[in-house]
Design goal:
Blueprint lengths: L4 E7 L3 E8 L4 E8 L3 E3 L8 E4 L1 H19 L6 E8 L4 E5 L9 E2 L7 H4 L6 H8 L8 H11 L1 H8 L3 E5 H9 L5 E2 L1 H5 L4 E2 L4 E2 L1 H7 L8 E2 L8 E4 L2 E10 H5 L10 E6 L3 E6 L10 E6 L25 E8 L6 H8 L5 H8 L9 E2 L17 E2 L5 H23 L7 E5 L6 H11 L2 E5 L4 H10 L12 E4 L5 H18 L2
Parallel strand pairs: 1-6, 6-15, 10-13, 16-22, 22-23
Antiparallel strand pairs: 1-2, 2-3, 4-5, 5-8, 7-9, 11-12, 14-15, 16-17, 17-19, 18-19, 20-21, 23-24
Length: 498
């Protein structure tokens, strides 16, 4: 009997990856392609434009798919379903008639649309009630408005009724699949135009931002029929799509309600499963898995998937972001003259400074739970280059700890699961354990998002049992760290107060 295989695409900020897994979670093959992010400051613009190339991203994914086909050969016919996980708040515009990209990808880090939000009569509580999000230029609505007002190519396509605007997933689906202009709830939400309660575009918000619904993709459930992907002569049904951070929670199977999930990469993302759709002020609510509830409507799912009774319910998460993690490296390099390599970071974390060492980290905007884009990044005075690296890393850890404390309002948190590039540092994991007072679990799985997407492709199969090792970092007394946390909190309070 041939073993069923499942293909997953993970389109992240730094690379695109394609992997093939068995139904039990064993990785068969994986390939990746890099993604370049550019920063430039146009004349008469208050904000740097942070962009990627949608065609380059698409080309990289196609190269990875070609390598999958080359490696699997005839076994490609064993791939029963596929899935996608991607950047939620990055979007672009393209021509719906020929697929030609009309703008670069406006990165999730890009906040050029902020002036529009100052003209919109929408409060944070109103936005959160409808979408689960706060009013922020990191999300898509103000970016879409900017494109509509500033791109001649976009204006022309709009007049010719050939304009599509959406997250990267929609652009990728347009080109790879036989159905067009589709999106899932996780990606749709990050436009700030999606109704969390009704699972559809919100007419009030569309009218407020003056965005025609005709340019947006059709929103489907996370486990919908998104179309078919051709690999050679084999047609693979695309049966799942989710935002990258949401998919990562499903890497080992169904998420643990008593855990807090932390992924530290370009940014740091903190998530805690909760179906309470009104989170504490400063936190977001995000859809993780909103399925079709008629099981017969998802014929591509594994026949054993519904042995897991939890697959047929909706899952949401309280969420927080810390923007200035790896995205701050170029700034830290500039301010220190160091390469800011993993070795530089480890050496900095060994310091035990006697003076006040802190970093007020507004790289990409100060995010949860503060949500400020008007503040200027600053260090404590007279820091050495190594102390600046220490202050930067600890600023990320401290902000994560503040958000974890808020998430305890949904109930007891028993432990933290950590992933992402920074989790490779033992000292980062130990500091997070020390400052939070919680055990930190680190697995040897560097592919949580890709793996979680593959699990979704199986239809959340009860057979999914990936094999990976994990280490546990238990909290210890760290007087120096605790003192620096207090110093950082006091400096933050002064910084935040007008």
């Amino acid at each position: 009997m041939k073993e069923n295989l499942y293909l997953a695409i993970d389109q992240g900020g730094q690379s695109s990856r394609v992997g093939v897994y068995t139904e039990s979670g064993e990785l068969i093959c994986q390939f990746s392609a890099p993604c370049v992010t550019t920063h430039h400051q146009p004349e008469n613009s208050l904000h740097s434009h942070i962009e990627q190339d949608g065609d380059e991203i698409l080309h990289g994914i196609r190269q990875c798919l070609d390598k999958v086909f080359e490696q699997l050969g005839e076994a490609v016919s064993n791939i029963k379903a596929a899935s996608f996980a991607g950047q939620g708040s990055s979007l672009l515009c393209w021509d719906s008639k020929n697929g030609e990209s009309l703008t670069p990808v406006l990165s999730w880090q890009d906040i050029r649309g902020e002036p529009y939000l100052q003209q919109i009569l929408l409060t944070h509580p109103q936005a959160q009630h409808i979408t689960g999000l706060r009013v922020s230029p990191h999300y898509g609505a103000s970016k879409i408005r900017w494109c509509l007002d500033n791109s001649d190519a976009v204006k022309k396509a709009l007049n010719e009724n050939s304009l599509s605007i959406g997250p990267i997933v929609s652009f990728i689906f347009w080109h790879l699949l036989d159905q067009k202009n589709l999106v899932d709830p996780g990606h749709a939400q990050r436009t700030l135009l999606w109704n969390l309660h009704r699972n559809e575009w919100d007419e009030r918000l569309l009218k407020l931002f003056q965005i025609p619904i005709s340019v947006l993709p059709e929103c489907r459930f996370h486990n919908s029929d998104f179309g078919s992907l051709k690999l050679g002569t084999h047609s693979i049904p695309f049966s799942a799509s989710a935002r990258d951070q949401g998919a990562s929670l499903f890497a080992a199977g169904m998420p643990d309600l008593s855990a807090c999930y932390v992924n530290i990469g370009t940014g740091a993302f903190i998530q805690r499963v909760s179906n309470i759709l009104h989170a504490p002020d400063g936190l977001l609510v995000s859809p993780l898995w909103v399925p079709q509830h008629n099981r017969n409507e998802n014929p591509n799912a594994s026949p054993t998937c519904y042995a897991n009774e939890l697959a047929d319910k909706s899952w949401y998460a309280w969420e927080a972001t810390v923007n200035g993690a790896a995205s701050a490296i170029s700034y830290i390099q500039e301010k220190t003259g160091l390469g800011v390599t993993p070795n530089d970071i480890e050496l900095a974390l060994q310091l035990n400074p006697k003076q006040d060492v802190y970093f007020l980290n507004a790289i990409g905007g100060l995010s949860a739970p503060y949500w400020r884009t008007d503040l200027h990044t600053q260090f404590a005075v007279d820091l050495s280059p190594q102390e600046k690296v220490l202050a930067w890393i600890e600023s990320v850890i401290f902000q994560i700890a503040v958000n974890i404390e808020l998430m305890k309002k949904a109930g007891e948190i028993r432990y933290i699961r950590i992933s992402g590039g920074f989790s490779k540092s033992n000292q980062v994991c130990q500091r997070l354990a020390d400052i939070s007072g919680l055990d930190v679990y680190r697995s040897d799985n560097a592919d949580a998002t890709l793996q979680g997407a593959a699990y979704m492709a199986t239809g959340l199969s009860a057979r999914w049992q990936p094999d990976f090792q994990q280490e546990i970092f238990s909290p210890d007394i760290n007087t120096g760290l605790n003192n620096r946390f207090l110093i950082w909190q006091n400096a933050m309070q002064k910084w935040l107060t007008p």
